[in-house]
């Protein structure tokens, strides 16, 4: 039996969502193949928590725990941490140094894909269509009128390295830009400002098993709010339609574009790419390399729509990660 650590928590505003994702993964792993350990990676402590709520501290020297006098080391980690340190490469680098396989992208790819600015720069260089954008670092001098003139209104102001729509504001007037930047800088010291793309918003899951890239059905996002914000994502303020109401030709193009992006970025494990069909073509918004896997999340719904179970997919990803590591 392989010992599997399901990593959850994290140091960002998304830690509670990550714990929900982690618990779904833990509940859907094959217990005939794996011993499963829920590992919480929190700012104040790293620990294993059992079903009774008892906690055992992680030994960070080799990422192990002691249970009843027995040292438990892990054959693989299923990484469900959204944000830092599990999605931005920090935790991946630590596990790579220890030689412990994990299911998401490696440290280098994670660092790039967690940075919206860097990701957009790479995919745009491969002729992937995106919104027009501008970048600001905290402390930069800016002209709100110049931003509005260059990008048009409305536009989006986003924390560059954040998820779950934390630090995102849709701006309608030049006078709102300063407050929107203040909100974004509370989440990150880098900000991305993007032009508004009018069209159908879709999100699509993708993962790699061996040499095969599997692209899931697309989900159309219809938000009750002004955009797909935190409430829309997690508090039921949106309608998520799977499969998306797009034509077969549009889905084919979306699938091809998603595969290209996943390949260009050299991703691993499950990722979710977001697009807006603007003027009939998919414009890339961002990619999440540790997407939400809670009961409310998009990717689990897409997996179920294919007739495949979460247990099958999660188990395959772990076995594939172990195989690649031992090759």
Fold and architecture overview:
The structure is a single chain. This protein is α+β, with helices and mostly antiparallel strands. The protein has 3 domains: 2-104, Rossmann fold; 113-128 and 199-326, D-amino Acid Aminotransferase, Chain A, domain 1; 133-195, ATP-grasp fold, A domain (Dna Ligase, domain 1, 2-Layer Sandwich). Helices cover 31% and strands 29% of the residues. It is built from 10 helices and 16 strands. It has helices spanning 15-27, 90-98, 107-113, 116-124, 144-151, 177-185, 230-234, 248-264, 298-305, 310-326, and strands at 2-9, 34-41, 46-49, 55-57, 65-67, 70-72, 76-79, 133-137, 155-159, 168-171, 190-195, 199-209, 212-223, 238-241, 271-278, 281-288. It has a 5-stranded mixed sheet, covered by helices on one side. Strands 14-13-12-15-16 form a 5-stranded antiparallel sheet, with helices on both faces. Strands 8-11-9-10 form a 4-stranded antiparallel sheet. Helix 2 runs antiparallel to helix 3. The two termini are 19 Å apart.
């Amino acid at each position: 039996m392989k010992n599997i650590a399901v990593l959850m928590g994290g140091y960002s505003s998304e830690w509670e969502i990550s714990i929900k994702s982690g618990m779904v993964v833990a509940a859907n792993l094959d217990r005939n193949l794996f011993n499963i350990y829920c590992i919480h990676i929190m700012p104040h402590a790293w620990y294993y928590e059992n079903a009774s709520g008892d906690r055992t501290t992680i030994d960070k020297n080799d990422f192990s725990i002691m249970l009843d006098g027995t040292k438990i080391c892990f054959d693989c980690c299923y990484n469900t941490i959204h944000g830092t340190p599990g999605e931005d490469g920090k935790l991946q680098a630590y596990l790579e140094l220890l030689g412990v396989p994990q299911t998401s992208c490696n440290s280098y790819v994670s660092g790039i894909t967690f940075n919206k600015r860097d990701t957009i720069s790479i995919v745009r260089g491969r002729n992937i269509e995106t919104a027009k954008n501008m970048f600001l670092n905290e402390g930069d001098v800016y002209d709100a009128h110049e931003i509005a003139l260059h990008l048009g209104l409305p536009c989006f102001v986003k924390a560059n390295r954040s998820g779950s729509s934390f630090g995102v504001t849709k701006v309608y007037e030049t006078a709102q830009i300063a407050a929107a930047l203040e909100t974004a800088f509370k989440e990150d010291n880098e900000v991305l400002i993007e032009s508004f793309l009018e069209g159908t918003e879709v999100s699509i899951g993708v993962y790699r098993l061996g040499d095969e890239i599997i692209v899931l059905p697309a989900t159309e996002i219809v938000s009750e709010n002004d955009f797909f914000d935190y409430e829309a994502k997690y508090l039921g303020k949106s309608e998520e339609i799977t499969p998306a109401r797009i034509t077969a030709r549009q889905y084919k193009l979306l699938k091809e574009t998603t595969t290209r992006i996943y390949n260009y970025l050299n991703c691993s494990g499950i990722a979710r790419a977001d697009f807006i069909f603007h003027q009939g073509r998919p414009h890339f918004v961002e990619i999440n390399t540790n997407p939400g896997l809670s009961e409310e999340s998009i990717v689990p719904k897409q997996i179920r729509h294919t007739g495949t179970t979460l247990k099958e997919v999660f188990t395959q990803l772990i076995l594939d990660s172990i195989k690649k590591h031992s090759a």
